[in-house]
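One-letter codes give the sequence; the integers encode the fold. A sample entry reads:
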Amino acid sequence: MKKVFGLILVCAFAVAFVACGNKAKEEAAAKAKADSTRRADSTAMVVSAEAAKAQAKADSTAAADKAKAKADSIEAATKKKKKK
């Protein structure tokens, strides 16, 4: 009976030691993954903001070009009327 109880006790301690092992490594890995994700999100936000700025500048330039073309068109039309 003592041998069976001793064997059960040893098995219980073995299970307890295995179950409570290396939590620090798992937590460090989870923290590293969270940091990596945070950095990637931050980088994506910066890239997105820069792309939005570039698009806004391109749109502004296109609008200015369109306005200039319209003004040139109006000027050309008025010159034609003056010639007649």
